[in-house]
């Protein structure tokens, strides 16, 4: 029972990071109808920038801020320099451009930083706390959960309670009508990329210390997991990303803990297939409502 409780707690911490990264994919999909396959490569660049700033200044917090700022700048650069030229007539256009961005960014990171793994420091102890003799979350896990939940709450507040959030949603759902009403749709799309890329960079920085360390492909598995989460929850649904992230995080951690790490990808594939067979548009998809 102690092992089960520990694994569930660890799965929740892992799940909120997956949910956060999936949220960055959902934000871009909602604003541009493009699946950002470059999200992992963009996030790994943010992690290297954060590690460099942390190494130079000795401050984890400055590194964290640098990761967020790097994500925002990359979002502007990729959207204005590449994705804005994706054709609306072919959904493959955005995918091909995103794959090109992945190849360029990972090659540049590999040339500059090399292929070796680099340890990433954490601001808090990563050893699990004991409660009544049962190992639960570590202080770093608690930090990750608090940051992720605070950010999700902030995004919900932004999109649900502010004029800017209303303009972002209007530009995504009805761009032509929004233009007639005076909303600068192109600017809103750029802002969507900025938000999504900053969130993705932060999520990757929170996740990397839990793995082998930082290398040019450190976020590949995170992207695959987050993409599966976004599909399971529904690409249109921020709430689906959150619920899907927690579900996938707990399931993968339990499978890894009881059956081994090699079985976890199979479990994720089975979960993805089951959800898509039962509900092809995802658990919380709102496509039908938008068509009306």
Automatic annotation (TrEMBL):
Signal peptide: none annotated. Keywords: Amino-acid transport, Cell membrane, Membrane, Transmembrane, Transmembrane helix, Transport. The chain crosses the membrane at residues 6-27, 34-54, 60-82, 94-117, 137-159, 191-212, 266-287. It is a multi-pass membrane protein. It comes from the Bacteria. InterPro entries: ABC_transp_permease, BCAA_transport_permease. It is found in: Cell membrane. The keyword Membrane applies. Belongs to the binding-protein-dependent transport system permease family. LivHM subfamily. This is Branched-chain amino acid ABC transporter permease. The lineage of its organism: Bacteria, Bacillati, Actinomycetota, Actinomycetes, Micrococcales.
């Amino acid at each position: 029972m102690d092992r089960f409780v520990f694994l569930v707690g660890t799965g929740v911490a892992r799940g909120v990071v997956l949910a956060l990264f999936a949220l960055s994919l959902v934000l871009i999909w909602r604003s541009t109808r493009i699946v950002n396959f470059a999200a992992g490569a963009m996030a790994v660049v943010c992690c290297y920038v954060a590690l460099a700033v942390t190494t130079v200044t000795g401050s984890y917090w400055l590194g964290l801020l640098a990761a967020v700022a790097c994500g925002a700048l990359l979002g502007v650069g990729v959207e204005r320099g590449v994705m804005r030229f994706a054709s609306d007539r072919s959904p493959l256009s955005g995918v091909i451009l995103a794959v090109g961005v992945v190849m360029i960014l990972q090659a540049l990171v590999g040339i500059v930083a090399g292929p070796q793994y680099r340890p990433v420091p954490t601001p808090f102890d990563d050893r699990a706390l004991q409660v009544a003799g049962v190992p639960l979350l570590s202080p770093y896990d608690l930090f990750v959960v608090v940051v992720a939940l605070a950010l999700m709450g902030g995004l919900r507040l932004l999109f649900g309670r502010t004029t800017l959030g209303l303009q972002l949603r209007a530009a995504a759902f009805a761009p032509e009508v929004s233009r007639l009403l005076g909303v600068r749709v192109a600017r809103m799309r750029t802002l969507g990329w900025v938000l999504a890329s900053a969130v993705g960079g932060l999520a990757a920085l929170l996740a990397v210390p839990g793995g082998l360390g930082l290398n040019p492909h450190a976020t590949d598995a995170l992207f695959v997991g987050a993409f599966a989460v976004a599909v399971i929850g529904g690409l249109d649904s921020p709430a689906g990303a959150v619920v899907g992230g927690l579900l996938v995080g707990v399931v993968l951690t339990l499978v890894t803990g009881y059956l081994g790490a090699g079985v976890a990808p199979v479990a994720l594939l089975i979960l993805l297939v089951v959800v898509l067979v039962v509900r092809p548009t995802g658990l919380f998809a709102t496509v039908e409502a938008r068509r009306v």
